[in-house]
Design goal:
Elements (H helix, E strand, L loop, with lengths): L3 H14 L6 H13 L3 E4 L6 H12 L3 E5 L6 H5 E8 L2 E8 L6 E5 L6 H13 L1 E4 L2 E4 L5 E6 L12 H4 L4 E4 L5 H11 L13 H12 L5 H12 L10 H6 E3 L3 H17 L7 H5 L2 H5 L4 E2 L1 H6 L3 H11 L11
Parallel strand pairs: 1-8, 1-9, 2-5, 5-8
Antiparallel strand pairs: 3-4, 6-7, 10-11
Helix pairs in contact: 1-2, 2-11, 8-11, 9-11
Length: about 325
């Protein structure tokens, strides 16, 4: 029997599908991050609909939306806001002008084109859901979802995100090319006279309620042990690490990876109508939750080995304990 959460999930997918053709796995990943309370990094070449997806999501969720186009000359104050002096009949006074980060859904477009100083302005907002300007801390949201995009091809004039900031993204989703059938549908929709209208599905209270419901899902001890084993298996030289981890990985995943596995598994279980996480829930979230948390060495780059390849090695070789996908 379908639950209200699963029904609302399907309604959201249906509304987003009016604008986005295909990419069901990307949509599911974004929604998982939303209900888990995490941020998303979308990686793909230009023109694949990343920005359109974020705009469509804000329309379907009735949330405040803001966009920042990251460029090399962007300053931290352009993100967080600044304090200015205003003068009226009562004299001069300091007034805070909030920046675009004060939104519920923030699109950080081409985040790797900004300087490290500006990128660091996002760290506190993403981690603490607050911004400190002029010695005063101002809260953000809730909910507060950062969806950042980056182009993996054009690296001239870019500033790759440091590991500390990559680790603050809940999911990293790779946006690929569409199939021929999907491309034909895109051409039909985008060049026609009429455009589909996206209707709101959920509001702030509903989203926060589902976030609380997801956190209330329980995790059996053996599944939690499996989560810890998966994280440790990414550390070269540890007892759980496959041989290719020892060969190709310079730095393994942090405890935030385990937190992401836990919350993503809970959202997956809630969507399936269960209040207990299974090992199958865990398997399905490993790659998007951990692919950006492995630091590979030069040998991996020379051999064309990716984080996805190594995570699949872990899933194939490391035994995971826990109940199977059974309704409780």
């Amino acid at each position: 029997m379908s639950t209200p959460f699963a029904q609302d999930w399907d309604r959201l997918r249906a509304e987003l599908s009016k604008a986005i053709v295909g990419h069901e796995d990307i949509i599911d990943g974004v929604l998982t991050s939303l209900f888990a309370g995490g941020h998303v990094l979308l990686e793909g070449v230009p023109g694949l609909g990343k920005t359109l997806l974020v705009r469509s999501l804000s329309q379907a969720l009735s949330l405040d939306f803001s966009r920042i186009q990251f460029t090399p000359d962007l300053m931290p104050a352009d993100v967080t806001g600044t304090t200015v002096v205003e003068e009226d009949e009562n004299g001069r006074r300091f007034v805070f002008r909030p920046g675009p980060v004060f939104a519920q859904i923030l699109l950080a477009d081409e985040i790797n084109r900004a300087t490290p100083k500006t990128q660091s302005a996002m760290l506190e907002a993403m981690q603490e859901h607050a911004v400190t300007v002029g010695g005063e801390t101002r809260p953000l949201g809730p909910p507060f979802l950062v969806m950042a995009t980056q182009n993996p091809i054009e690296q001239e004039g870019t500033y790759p995100l440091p590991e500390a900031q990559l680790d603050r993204f809940f999911y990293k989703l790779l946006v690929g090319y569409s199939s021929r059938e999907e491309l034909c549908e895109i051409l039909e929709r985008t060049t026609a006279a009429d455009h589909a209208e996206i209707h709101p599905v959920l509001d702030t209270d509903a989203i926060l309620g589902y976030q609380r419901a997801a956190r209330s899902v329980s995790i059996p001890d053996d599944v939690r042990t499996s989560m810890a084993t998966l994280v440790l298996a990414t550390h070269p030289g540890r007892e759980f690490a496959p041989s290719r981890i020892d060969r190709y990985v310079r730095l393994g995943a942090s405890p935030r990876a385990g937190q992401a596995l836990s919350l993503a598994s809970k959202v997956t279980a809630l969507r399936a109508g269960r209040n207990v996480v299974t090992v199958d829930d865990l398997r399905g979230v490993v790659v998007p939750a951990m692919r950006h948390r492995l630091v590979l060495n030069f040998e991996a780059q020379a051999d064309g080995v990716t984080s996805d390849d190594l995570l699949q090695d872990i899933l194939d070789t490391v035994p995971l304990q826990g109940p199977a996908d059974t309704t409780f």
